[in-house]
Structure to design on (131 residues):
Protein backbone atom coordinates (compact mmCIF):
# COMPACT_ATOMS: atom_id res chain seq x y z
CA UNK A 1 0.00 0.00 0.00
CA UNK A 2 1.33 3.38 -0.98
CA UNK A 3 1.48 6.41 1.23
CA UNK A 4 -0.96 8.12 -1.14
CA UNK A 5 -3.36 6.13 -3.28
CA UNK A 6 -4.57 7.94 -6.36
CA UNK A 7 -8.35 7.92 -6.52
CA UNK A 8 -9.69 9.21 -9.82
CA UNK A 9 -13.18 10.00 -8.55
CA UNK A 10 -11.67 12.09 -5.80
CA UNK A 11 -8.77 13.79 -7.55
CA UNK A 12 -9.49 13.92 -11.26
CA UNK A 13 -9.82 17.42 -12.73
CA UNK A 14 -11.17 16.01 -16.01
CA UNK A 15 -8.09 17.00 -17.96
CA UNK A 16 -5.74 14.17 -18.93
CA UNK A 17 -2.58 16.24 -18.97
CA UNK A 18 -3.26 17.79 -15.56
CA UNK A 19 -4.31 14.44 -14.10
CA UNK A 20 -1.11 12.78 -15.32
CA UNK A 21 1.01 15.54 -13.85
CA UNK A 22 -0.83 15.29 -10.53
CA UNK A 23 -0.24 11.53 -10.53
CA UNK A 24 3.44 12.10 -11.19
CA UNK A 25 3.63 14.44 -8.20
CA UNK A 26 1.88 11.83 -6.05
CA UNK A 27 4.40 9.20 -7.22
CA UNK A 28 7.27 11.44 -6.21
CA UNK A 29 5.79 12.04 -2.75
CA UNK A 30 5.33 8.29 -2.38
CA UNK A 31 8.95 7.79 -3.34
CA UNK A 32 10.01 10.36 -0.76
CA UNK A 33 7.94 8.49 1.82
CA UNK A 34 9.57 5.16 0.92
CA UNK A 35 13.05 6.64 1.07
CA UNK A 36 12.36 8.19 4.45
CA UNK A 37 11.01 4.90 5.81
CA UNK A 38 13.92 2.93 4.41
CA UNK A 39 16.34 5.25 6.17
CA UNK A 40 17.93 6.53 2.96
CA UNK A 41 20.58 9.22 3.28
CA UNK A 42 19.66 12.84 3.62
CA UNK A 43 21.35 13.51 0.30
CA UNK A 44 19.02 11.06 -1.44
CA UNK A 45 16.00 12.68 0.19
CA UNK A 46 17.21 16.12 -0.75
CA UNK A 47 17.56 15.06 -4.37
CA UNK A 48 13.96 13.81 -4.50
CA UNK A 49 12.73 16.93 -2.79
CA UNK A 50 14.56 19.04 -5.39
CA UNK A 51 13.10 16.98 -8.23
CA UNK A 52 9.65 17.31 -6.75
CA UNK A 53 9.99 21.07 -6.47
CA UNK A 54 11.18 21.33 -10.07
CA UNK A 55 8.37 19.11 -11.33
CA UNK A 56 5.76 20.95 -9.25
CA UNK A 57 7.00 24.16 -10.84
CA UNK A 58 6.64 22.64 -14.32
CA UNK A 59 3.13 21.45 -13.51
CA UNK A 60 2.08 24.79 -11.99
CA UNK A 61 3.31 26.69 -15.05
CA UNK A 62 1.36 24.34 -17.34
CA UNK A 63 -1.75 24.71 -15.20
CA UNK A 64 -1.43 28.49 -15.03
CA UNK A 65 -1.06 28.52 -18.83
CA UNK A 66 -4.32 26.66 -19.13
CA UNK A 67 -6.10 28.99 -16.69
CA UNK A 68 -4.77 32.03 -18.52
CA UNK A 69 -5.87 30.68 -21.87
CA UNK A 70 -9.46 30.28 -20.72
CA UNK A 71 -9.44 33.47 -18.66
CA UNK A 72 -10.19 31.76 -15.40
CA UNK A 73 -11.28 34.58 -13.04
CA UNK A 74 -9.26 33.24 -10.08
CA UNK A 75 -6.06 32.66 -12.06
CA UNK A 76 -4.04 35.22 -10.10
CA UNK A 77 -4.94 33.96 -6.61
CA UNK A 78 -4.46 30.39 -7.82
CA UNK A 79 -0.96 31.28 -8.93
CA UNK A 80 -0.20 32.70 -5.47
CA UNK A 81 -1.13 29.36 -3.90
CA UNK A 82 1.29 27.61 -6.23
CA UNK A 83 4.03 30.05 -5.30
CA UNK A 84 3.50 29.25 -1.64
CA UNK A 85 4.10 25.53 -2.21
CA UNK A 86 7.29 26.14 -4.18
CA UNK A 87 8.59 28.54 -1.53
CA UNK A 88 7.88 26.08 1.29
CA UNK A 89 9.58 23.22 -0.55
CA UNK A 90 12.60 25.43 -1.10
CA UNK A 91 12.69 26.24 2.62
CA UNK A 92 12.51 22.56 3.53
CA UNK A 93 15.33 21.82 1.15
CA UNK A 94 17.44 24.53 2.77
CA UNK A 95 16.61 23.33 6.29
CA UNK A 96 17.80 19.85 5.33
CA UNK A 97 21.31 21.21 4.94
CA UNK A 98 21.47 21.76 8.69
CA UNK A 99 19.05 19.35 10.31
CA UNK A 100 17.87 15.79 9.71
CA UNK A 101 14.80 15.36 7.60
CA UNK A 102 11.60 14.70 9.51
CA UNK A 103 8.23 13.44 8.38
CA UNK A 104 6.84 17.02 8.62
CA UNK A 105 8.10 17.69 5.10
CA UNK A 106 6.39 14.60 3.77
CA UNK A 107 3.07 15.37 5.44
CA UNK A 108 3.19 18.97 4.28
CA UNK A 109 3.83 17.91 0.68
CA UNK A 110 0.99 15.41 0.77
CA UNK A 111 -1.60 17.45 2.69
CA UNK A 112 -1.08 20.63 0.73
CA UNK A 113 -1.13 18.90 -2.65
CA UNK A 114 -4.22 16.78 -2.05
CA UNK A 115 -6.14 19.63 -0.49
CA UNK A 116 -5.12 21.92 -3.34
CA UNK A 117 -6.27 19.44 -5.96
CA UNK A 118 -9.53 18.69 -4.19
CA UNK A 119 -10.47 22.29 -3.48
CA UNK A 120 -8.68 24.66 -5.83
CA UNK A 121 -7.94 22.57 -8.91
CA UNK A 122 -11.45 21.13 -8.84
CA UNK A 123 -12.77 24.69 -8.93
CA UNK A 124 -11.04 25.47 -12.24
CA UNK A 125 -12.07 22.03 -13.45
CA UNK A 126 -15.74 22.98 -13.01
CA UNK A 127 -15.08 26.30 -14.72
CA UNK A 128 -13.38 24.65 -17.71
CA UNK A 129 -16.35 22.33 -18.16
CA UNK A 130 -18.42 25.39 -19.06
CA UNK A 131 -15.94 26.39 -21.83
FE1 LIG B 1 -3.28 24.31 -8.93
FE1 LIG C 1 -2.57 21.20 -10.08
Amino acid sequence: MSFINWESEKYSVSNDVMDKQHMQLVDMINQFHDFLNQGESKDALKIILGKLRTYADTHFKAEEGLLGKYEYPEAESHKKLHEYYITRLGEFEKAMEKAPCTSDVMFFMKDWLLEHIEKEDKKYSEFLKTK
User: Anything to note?
Assistant: Residues 42-129 form a domain with the Four Helix Bundle (Hemerythrin (Met), subunit A) fold (CATH 1.20.120.50). The chain has a mean pLDDT of 96. The pocket of fe (ii) ion (ligand 2) is lined by residues 18, 22, 59, 63, 117, 121 (CB under 6 Å).
